[in-house]
């Protein structure tokens, strides 16, 4: 069994945020490598005919209650974002661009965006808010915006999303160990078990 976890993620998913808080620890404990693969969840939904559980009111209410239970279990902050769902196209291009062009700052970049969305509940659909968040964390908003318009970055995000769908991804978070897919932050115990 491979000792690498490929983590397909989109910032706009609260379940993905929870997985993101736990995977580094699981990988450290099992001597495994964590590979972050940004994808566009909206593109995955469109390609697979899937939709967010939040589109079904009763399921959406339950999902957020359940995610809150997991956040307490994990000992991490989670706040329902009143602006959910978020259009993450520009954000995920920025994440992909940071990974490609500035890998040394990738982790801090993703940290600040996940925190803004799922701890502070900020509206990252608004460019001014995004700029404020980036500035607060030492990133130049104009440089980040330039990344989102880079054709190679756009192509990389599109390729990641298409590859995810070809591999059987239908939502986020999705994690692969070898060719085995684990979907959902509530399957992290199986991820840890497979790595051990």
From TrEMBL:
Domain DSBA-like thioredoxin: 4-195
Keywords from the UniProt entry: Isomerase
Keyword Hydrolase: no
Reactions listed under catalytic activity: 2-hydroxychromene-2-carboxylate = (3E)-4-(2-hydroxyphenyl)-2-oxobut-3-enoate
EC number per UniProt: 5.99.1.4
Entry annotated with the keyword Membrane: no
Alphabetical list of Pfam families matching this protein: DSBA (PF01323)
GO molecular function: isomerase activity
Annotated signal sequence range: none
Protein family membership: Belongs to the GST superfamily. NadH family.
Name listed for the protein in its UniProt record: 2-hydroxychromene-2-carboxylate isomerase
Organism of derivation: Pseudomonas ekonensis
